[in-house]
Amino acid sequence: MYVVTNRQINASKPGLKAFSKSQNEFGIEELRLVKVTREEDGGYQTELLDDELTSEEVDALVKEYDLDPEIGHLAQVDPSDPKYFASFRVACELFTKAQESDGKSILFYVHGFNNSTERVLEVAHNMQESYDVIVVPFCWPAFSDDAKLRKIRKVYHTDKEIARKSESALNRFIHKISDYYRMLTARTVRQISKRLRDHQDAEEIGLNDTERAARIRERYCNVKLSIMYHSMGNYLLKHATTSTTAGSRKSLFENHILVASDTNADDHEDWVERLHPLNKVYVVINRKDGILRWSEKERGEEQKARLGKSTNFIEARNAIYLDVTELPDVEDSHGYHHDPEIIRDGSPLKAVIKAAVRGEDAEYLMRRSGSSRLYT
Questions:
Q1: Collapsed DSSP state (helix, strand, coil) of residue 160
Q2: Domain interval for residue 278
Q3: How many Å apart are CA 249 and CA 275, to the nearest integer?
Protein backbone atom coordinates (compact mmCIF):
# COMPACT_ATOMS: atom_id res chain seq x y z
CA MET A 1 0.00 0.00 0.00
CA TYR A 2 1.20 3.52 -0.80
CA VAL A 3 0.71 6.36 1.68
CA VAL A 4 0.91 10.05 0.80
CA THR A 5 1.78 12.20 3.79
CA ASN A 6 2.81 15.69 4.92
CA ARG A 7 4.27 14.23 8.12
CA GLN A 8 8.01 14.33 8.68
CA ILE A 9 9.59 11.03 7.57
CA ASN A 10 12.73 9.58 9.14
CA ALA A 11 13.86 6.84 6.77
CA SER A 12 16.47 5.59 9.24
CA LYS A 13 13.80 4.41 11.69
CA PRO A 14 12.19 0.97 11.26
CA GLY A 15 8.58 0.29 10.32
CA LEU A 16 5.95 2.86 11.15
CA LYS A 17 8.34 4.68 13.48
CA ALA A 18 9.52 6.35 10.29
CA PHE A 19 6.34 8.45 10.41
CA SER A 20 6.82 11.37 12.80
CA LYS A 21 3.98 13.03 14.70
CA SER A 22 5.13 16.40 13.35
CA GLN A 23 4.78 18.05 9.96
CA ASN A 24 7.35 17.87 7.18
CA GLU A 25 10.47 19.82 8.11
CA PHE A 26 10.31 21.76 4.82
CA GLY A 27 6.73 22.91 5.43
CA ILE A 28 3.33 21.42 6.08
CA GLU A 29 2.45 21.64 2.38
CA GLU A 30 5.32 19.28 1.44
CA LEU A 31 4.35 15.73 0.47
CA ARG A 32 6.25 12.43 0.68
CA LEU A 33 5.33 9.05 -0.74
CA VAL A 34 5.92 5.92 1.32
CA LYS A 35 5.44 2.28 0.34
CA VAL A 36 4.11 0.31 3.31
CA THR A 37 4.06 -3.49 3.39
CA ARG A 38 2.14 -5.37 6.06
CA GLU A 39 3.93 -8.46 7.34
CA GLU A 40 2.38 -11.73 8.49
CA ASP A 41 3.08 -10.94 12.15
CA GLY A 42 1.10 -7.69 11.88
CA GLY A 43 4.14 -5.44 11.66
CA TYR A 44 5.02 -3.13 8.79
CA GLN A 45 7.95 -2.47 6.51
CA THR A 46 8.29 1.04 5.12
CA GLU A 47 10.19 2.35 2.11
CA LEU A 48 10.50 6.08 1.52
CA LEU A 49 10.44 6.56 -2.23
CA ASP A 50 12.90 8.87 -3.94
CA ASP A 51 11.50 12.28 -4.77
CA GLU A 52 12.63 12.29 -8.37
CA LEU A 53 13.06 10.18 -11.50
CA THR A 54 15.42 10.84 -14.36
CA SER A 55 14.12 11.60 -17.84
CA GLU A 56 15.43 8.19 -18.93
CA GLU A 57 13.36 6.47 -16.23
CA VAL A 58 10.28 8.40 -17.34
CA ASP A 59 10.87 7.44 -20.99
CA ALA A 60 11.06 3.80 -19.89
CA LEU A 61 7.76 4.12 -18.00
CA VAL A 62 6.05 5.77 -20.99
CA LYS A 63 7.19 2.85 -23.15
CA GLU A 64 6.36 0.16 -20.56
CA TYR A 65 2.83 1.43 -19.95
CA ASP A 66 2.18 2.49 -23.57
CA LEU A 67 1.51 6.11 -22.62
CA ASP A 68 1.20 9.19 -24.77
CA PRO A 69 4.80 10.50 -24.97
CA GLU A 70 3.64 14.05 -25.63
CA ILE A 71 2.34 14.61 -22.12
CA GLY A 72 5.26 13.23 -20.09
CA HIS A 73 5.94 16.83 -19.00
CA LEU A 74 3.08 16.53 -16.49
CA ALA A 75 5.38 14.47 -14.28
CA GLN A 76 8.05 17.17 -14.22
CA VAL A 77 9.02 18.87 -10.97
CA ASP A 78 9.61 22.11 -12.88
CA PRO A 79 8.96 22.72 -16.62
CA SER A 80 12.48 24.16 -16.95
CA ASP A 81 14.13 21.29 -15.07
CA PRO A 82 14.48 17.75 -16.54
CA LYS A 83 13.56 16.09 -13.25
CA TYR A 84 10.36 14.17 -12.61
CA PHE A 85 8.26 13.26 -9.60
CA ALA A 86 8.76 9.66 -8.48
CA SER A 87 5.02 9.47 -7.81
CA PHE A 88 4.62 9.10 -11.58
CA ARG A 89 5.90 5.53 -11.30
CA VAL A 90 3.40 4.75 -8.54
CA ALA A 91 0.54 6.28 -10.53
CA CYS A 92 1.42 4.04 -13.49
CA GLU A 93 1.56 0.97 -11.24
CA LEU A 94 -1.74 1.59 -9.45
CA PHE A 95 -3.67 2.59 -12.56
CA THR A 96 -2.46 -0.46 -14.46
CA LYS A 97 -3.26 -2.72 -11.48
CA ALA A 98 -6.80 -1.33 -11.44
CA GLN A 99 -7.23 -1.78 -15.19
CA GLU A 100 -5.95 -5.36 -15.14
CA SER A 101 -8.33 -6.30 -12.32
CA ASP A 102 -11.35 -5.61 -14.54
CA GLY A 103 -11.64 -1.94 -13.67
CA LYS A 104 -11.12 -2.06 -9.90
CA SER A 105 -11.83 1.34 -8.34
CA ILE A 106 -9.22 3.46 -6.57
CA LEU A 107 -10.30 5.10 -3.31
CA PHE A 108 -8.36 7.98 -1.79
CA TYR A 109 -8.91 8.27 1.96
CA VAL A 110 -8.50 11.29 4.26
CA HIS A 111 -8.69 10.37 7.97
CA GLY A 112 -9.90 12.25 11.03
CA PHE A 113 -8.40 13.51 14.30
CA ASN A 114 -6.22 11.61 16.80
CA ASN A 115 -5.23 8.98 14.21
CA SER A 116 -1.81 7.36 14.29
CA THR A 117 -0.30 6.12 11.05
CA GLU A 118 -0.88 2.57 12.25
CA ARG A 119 -4.56 3.32 12.81
CA VAL A 120 -4.89 4.93 9.36
CA LEU A 121 -3.34 1.85 7.75
CA GLU A 122 -5.59 -0.50 9.70
CA VAL A 123 -8.65 1.38 8.45
CA ALA A 124 -7.31 1.48 4.89
CA HIS A 125 -6.62 -2.27 4.86
CA ASN A 126 -10.07 -3.02 6.30
CA MET A 127 -11.74 -1.03 3.52
CA GLN A 128 -9.50 -2.46 0.81
CA GLU A 129 -10.43 -6.01 1.83
CA SER A 130 -14.11 -5.31 2.52
CA TYR A 131 -14.92 -3.30 -0.61
CA ASP A 132 -12.44 -4.77 -3.12
CA VAL A 133 -10.92 -1.40 -4.01
CA ILE A 134 -7.37 -0.04 -4.08
CA VAL A 135 -7.00 2.38 -1.14
CA VAL A 136 -4.47 5.23 -1.06
CA PRO A 137 -4.48 7.09 2.29
CA PHE A 138 -3.59 10.75 2.68
CA CYS A 139 -1.99 10.82 6.16
CA TRP A 140 -1.87 14.30 7.70
CA PRO A 141 -0.08 14.89 11.05
CA ALA A 142 -2.96 14.41 13.46
CA PHE A 143 -1.60 14.43 17.01
CA SER A 144 -2.40 10.71 17.52
CA ASP A 145 -2.05 10.59 21.30
CA ASP A 146 -3.63 7.73 23.23
CA ALA A 147 -4.56 10.23 25.89
CA LYS A 148 -7.20 10.06 28.56
CA LEU A 149 -10.35 12.13 28.13
CA ARG A 150 -8.94 15.13 30.00
CA LYS A 151 -6.16 15.37 27.39
CA ILE A 152 -8.30 14.56 24.37
CA ARG A 153 -9.77 18.07 24.40
CA LYS A 154 -6.32 19.57 23.88
CA VAL A 155 -5.53 16.99 21.18
CA TYR A 156 -8.82 17.79 19.44
CA HIS A 157 -8.18 21.52 19.18
CA THR A 158 -4.55 20.98 18.20
CA ASP A 159 -5.66 18.67 15.40
CA LYS A 160 -8.19 21.21 14.15
CA GLU A 161 -5.40 23.73 13.75
CA ILE A 162 -3.18 21.18 11.97
CA ALA A 163 -6.07 20.19 9.69
CA ARG A 164 -6.57 23.82 8.66
CA LYS A 165 -2.87 24.18 7.90
CA SER A 166 -2.86 20.95 5.84
CA GLU A 167 -5.28 22.34 3.25
CA SER A 168 -2.53 23.24 0.77
CA ALA A 169 -1.03 19.74 1.06
CA LEU A 170 -4.42 18.17 0.31
CA ASN A 171 -4.93 20.42 -2.70
CA ARG A 172 -1.42 19.61 -4.02
CA PHE A 173 -2.20 15.90 -3.59
CA ILE A 174 -5.43 16.14 -5.58
CA HIS A 175 -3.79 18.28 -8.28
CA LYS A 176 -1.21 15.52 -8.81
CA ILE A 177 -3.90 12.83 -8.97
CA SER A 178 -5.63 14.91 -11.66
CA ASP A 179 -2.41 15.40 -13.64
CA TYR A 180 -1.58 11.70 -13.60
CA TYR A 181 -5.11 10.63 -14.42
CA ARG A 182 -5.10 12.89 -17.48
CA MET A 183 -1.70 11.54 -18.44
CA LEU A 184 -2.70 7.91 -18.07
CA THR A 185 -5.93 8.33 -20.03
CA ALA A 186 -4.70 10.80 -22.68
CA ARG A 187 -4.25 8.22 -25.41
CA THR A 188 -7.72 6.77 -24.86
CA VAL A 189 -9.26 10.24 -24.85
CA ARG A 190 -7.47 11.23 -28.06
CA GLN A 191 -8.42 8.04 -29.91
CA ILE A 192 -12.07 8.17 -28.90
CA SER A 193 -12.28 11.93 -29.54
CA LYS A 194 -11.14 11.33 -33.11
CA ARG A 195 -13.74 8.61 -33.58
CA LEU A 196 -16.56 10.68 -32.11
CA ARG A 197 -15.62 14.04 -33.63
CA ASP A 198 -18.19 13.71 -36.40
CA HIS A 199 -20.75 11.82 -34.30
CA GLN A 200 -21.34 14.00 -31.25
CA ASP A 201 -24.30 13.39 -29.02
CA ALA A 202 -26.58 16.39 -28.69
CA GLU A 203 -25.42 16.83 -25.11
CA GLU A 204 -21.78 17.11 -26.25
CA ILE A 205 -22.35 19.99 -28.63
CA GLY A 206 -20.93 23.18 -27.13
CA LEU A 207 -18.51 21.45 -24.75
CA ASN A 208 -14.95 22.71 -24.73
CA ASP A 209 -12.01 20.30 -25.07
CA THR A 210 -11.56 19.89 -21.31
CA GLU A 211 -15.25 19.18 -20.75
CA ARG A 212 -15.36 16.74 -23.66
CA ALA A 213 -12.29 14.89 -22.35
CA ALA A 214 -13.92 14.57 -18.92
CA ARG A 215 -17.09 13.18 -20.54
CA ILE A 216 -15.07 10.62 -22.52
CA ARG A 217 -13.13 9.49 -19.44
CA GLU A 218 -16.41 9.07 -17.57
CA ARG A 219 -17.88 6.88 -20.31
CA TYR A 220 -14.96 4.87 -21.63
CA CYS A 221 -12.21 4.62 -18.98
CA ASN A 222 -12.93 1.60 -16.81
CA VAL A 223 -10.99 2.82 -13.74
CA LYS A 224 -13.06 4.95 -11.37
CA LEU A 225 -11.57 7.25 -8.76
CA SER A 226 -13.47 8.23 -5.60
CA ILE A 227 -12.43 10.01 -2.40
CA MET A 228 -13.61 9.56 1.18
CA TYR A 229 -13.24 12.08 4.00
CA HIS A 230 -13.82 10.85 7.55
CA SER A 231 -14.57 12.90 10.66
CA MET A 232 -12.16 15.88 10.92
CA GLY A 233 -10.92 15.05 7.43
CA ASN A 234 -14.07 16.89 6.34
CA TYR A 235 -12.95 19.96 8.28
CA LEU A 236 -9.69 19.79 6.33
CA LEU A 237 -11.70 19.52 3.10
CA LYS A 238 -13.90 22.47 4.07
CA HIS A 239 -10.85 24.73 4.33
CA ALA A 240 -9.22 23.23 1.24
CA THR A 241 -12.18 24.31 -0.92
CA THR A 242 -11.81 28.01 -0.12
CA SER A 243 -9.46 28.75 -3.03
CA THR A 244 -11.03 29.08 -6.47
CA THR A 245 -8.13 27.04 -7.91
CA ALA A 246 -8.29 24.37 -5.19
CA GLY A 247 -7.57 20.83 -6.33
CA SER A 248 -10.40 19.68 -4.06
CA ARG A 249 -12.88 21.37 -6.41
CA LYS A 250 -11.78 19.43 -9.49
CA SER A 251 -14.19 17.32 -11.55
CA LEU A 252 -12.06 14.22 -11.04
CA PHE A 253 -13.72 11.84 -8.62
CA GLU A 254 -16.81 9.76 -9.34
CA ASN A 255 -17.99 10.10 -5.76
CA HIS A 256 -17.05 12.34 -2.85
CA ILE A 257 -18.02 10.47 0.34
CA LEU A 258 -18.24 12.61 3.48
CA VAL A 259 -18.49 10.15 6.38
CA ALA A 260 -19.20 11.13 10.01
CA SER A 261 -18.34 14.71 9.14
CA ASP A 262 -16.97 16.64 12.12
CA THR A 263 -17.96 20.04 10.72
CA ASN A 264 -20.85 22.37 11.39
CA ALA A 265 -24.06 21.26 9.69
CA ASP A 266 -25.18 24.88 9.54
CA ASP A 267 -24.21 26.49 6.22
CA HIS A 268 -22.30 23.40 5.05
CA GLU A 269 -23.77 23.94 1.61
CA ASP A 270 -21.40 26.90 1.21
CA TRP A 271 -18.43 24.53 0.83
CA VAL A 272 -20.07 21.24 -0.17
CA GLU A 273 -21.50 22.88 -3.29
CA ARG A 274 -17.93 23.71 -4.36
CA LEU A 275 -17.34 19.99 -4.96
CA HIS A 276 -17.85 18.80 -8.53
CA PRO A 277 -18.23 15.00 -8.69
CA LEU A 278 -18.58 13.03 -11.88
CA ASN A 279 -21.37 11.15 -10.12
CA LYS A 280 -22.43 12.04 -6.55
CA VAL A 281 -21.51 13.78 -3.31
CA TYR A 282 -22.62 11.57 -0.41
CA VAL A 283 -23.03 12.90 3.15
CA VAL A 284 -23.21 9.84 5.43
CA ILE A 285 -24.95 10.39 8.76
CA ASN A 286 -25.32 8.49 12.03
CA ARG A 287 -27.63 10.43 14.36
CA LYS A 288 -26.32 8.39 17.32
CA ASP A 289 -22.62 8.95 16.60
CA GLY A 290 -20.96 9.03 20.03
CA ILE A 291 -17.80 10.89 19.01
CA LEU A 292 -19.75 13.62 17.23
CA ARG A 293 -22.04 13.91 20.25
CA TRP A 294 -18.94 14.64 22.30
CA SER A 295 -17.62 17.03 19.64
CA GLU A 296 -20.82 19.07 19.72
CA LYS A 297 -20.25 19.76 23.43
CA GLU A 298 -16.73 21.09 22.93
CA ARG A 299 -16.01 24.73 23.73
CA GLY A 300 -15.97 27.39 21.04
CA GLU A 301 -18.53 29.13 18.88
CA GLU A 302 -17.62 26.86 15.96
CA GLN A 303 -18.95 23.75 17.68
CA LYS A 304 -22.55 23.56 16.49
CA ALA A 305 -24.62 20.59 15.35
CA ARG A 306 -22.32 18.26 13.41
CA LEU A 307 -22.97 17.49 9.76
CA GLY A 308 -22.31 13.76 10.27
CA LYS A 309 -24.92 13.53 13.03
CA SER A 310 -27.87 15.66 11.91
CA THR A 311 -30.61 15.26 9.33
CA ASN A 312 -31.99 18.75 9.98
CA PHE A 313 -29.77 20.43 7.40
CA ILE A 314 -30.47 18.86 4.00
CA GLU A 315 -29.31 21.97 2.18
CA ALA A 316 -26.53 21.23 -0.33
CA ARG A 317 -28.12 20.99 -3.77
CA ASN A 318 -25.39 18.73 -5.14
CA ALA A 319 -25.43 16.22 -2.24
CA ILE A 320 -27.28 13.02 -1.39
CA TYR A 321 -27.68 12.39 2.35
CA LEU A 322 -27.51 8.79 3.58
CA ASP A 323 -28.84 8.30 7.12
CA VAL A 324 -27.45 4.92 8.24
CA THR A 325 -28.52 5.27 11.90
CA GLU A 326 -31.02 2.44 11.92
CA LEU A 327 -29.02 -0.01 9.86
CA PRO A 328 -27.96 -3.14 11.79
CA ASP A 329 -25.05 -2.83 14.25
CA VAL A 330 -24.32 0.86 13.57
CA GLU A 331 -25.50 2.04 17.01
CA ASP A 332 -23.24 4.90 18.26
CA SER A 333 -20.26 4.02 16.03
CA HIS A 334 -18.05 6.73 14.54
CA GLY A 335 -16.03 4.31 12.40
CA TYR A 336 -18.90 2.33 10.91
CA HIS A 337 -17.43 2.69 7.40
CA HIS A 338 -14.57 0.29 8.19
CA ASP A 339 -15.39 -1.65 11.38
CA PRO A 340 -15.37 -5.39 10.48
CA GLU A 341 -17.95 -6.04 13.20
CA ILE A 342 -20.39 -3.72 11.43
CA ILE A 343 -19.67 -4.17 7.72
CA ARG A 344 -19.95 -7.95 7.73
CA ASP A 345 -20.82 -9.83 4.57
CA GLY A 346 -24.49 -9.42 3.78
CA SER A 347 -24.96 -6.29 5.88
CA PRO A 348 -26.98 -3.47 4.28
CA LEU A 349 -24.39 -0.90 5.36
CA LYS A 350 -21.58 -2.77 3.61
CA ALA A 351 -23.57 -2.79 0.38
CA VAL A 352 -24.23 0.96 0.62
CA ILE A 353 -20.64 1.98 1.41
CA LYS A 354 -19.25 -0.46 -1.16
CA ALA A 355 -21.36 1.10 -3.90
CA ALA A 356 -20.26 4.61 -2.89
CA VAL A 357 -16.51 3.87 -2.79
CA ARG A 358 -16.68 2.05 -6.13
CA GLY A 359 -18.13 5.13 -7.82
CA GLU A 360 -21.63 3.70 -8.09
CA ASP A 361 -25.08 4.96 -7.00
CA ALA A 362 -25.48 4.04 -3.34
CA GLU A 363 -28.79 5.73 -2.54
CA TYR A 364 -30.86 3.21 -4.50
CA LEU A 365 -29.96 0.57 -1.91
CA MET A 366 -31.83 2.64 0.67
CA ARG A 367 -35.30 4.14 1.03
CA ARG A 368 -36.02 7.76 0.16
CA SER A 369 -37.21 9.74 3.16
CA GLY A 370 -39.26 12.95 3.29
CA SER A 371 -36.64 15.00 1.48
CA SER A 372 -35.82 14.19 -2.14
CA ARG A 373 -32.13 14.03 -1.16
CA LEU A 374 -32.38 12.12 2.14
CA TYR A 375 -32.29 8.30 2.20
CA THR A 376 -32.62 6.02 5.23
A1: helix
A2: 2-53+104-375
A3: 5
**β-strand partners of 135:** 107
Residue 84 CA neighbour count, 13 Å, CB half:
23
* d(C-alpha 95, C-alpha 64), whole Å: 13
Q: How many of the other CB atoms lie within 10 Å of CB of 151?
A: 12
Q: Give SS3 for 59.
A: helix
How many distinct structural domains can be found in the chain? 1
Per-position DSSP letters for 274-286, written without gaps between them: T---SSEEEEEE-
Exposure string (b/e) for 171-201, b if CB count within 10 Å is 16 or more? bbbbbbbbbbbbbbbbebbeebeeebeeeee
- Cα torsion through 107, 108, 112, 118, rounded to 10: 90
- Give domain status of residue 61, yes or no: no
3-state DSSP assignment of residue 79:
coil
pLDDT digit string (tens) for 123-134? Answer: 999 999 999 999
Model's pTM, two decimal places? 0.90
Rounded Cα distance between 65 and 266, Å, is: 47
For the stretch 267-303, pLDDT in tens is 999 999 999 999 999 999 999 999 999 999 876 656 7
CA dist 236 and 112 (Å) reads 9
